[in-house]
Task: structure prediction
Amino acid sequence: MDNSVTIWGDSIDSNMGQLLVRNIDDELVRELKLRAAGNGVSAEEEHRRILRAALSADDDREFLEHLMAMPDVGEDSDFEREREFPRETDL
Result:
């Protein structure tokens, strides 16, 4: 399968690049269109928003948000790992 991505944007007349993504699964395209409709925008605009969010995300903040979203359940001992030492080997 040719999963090529073509980017245009180095022309003198254009200050905005263009992106062409080929060989997208039909189901993914359908999900994009449904998500766009739910947000009241075109599929193209939704695609831009997804790319913008994915490429400009503050990784540290995003990681902290994931940590803060974890439920505060259990005791520390519930999450301890058993220490198993490797068997002895003859070299």
Notes: The CA atoms of residues 11 and 17 lie 9 Å apart. The chain has a mean pLDDT of 80.
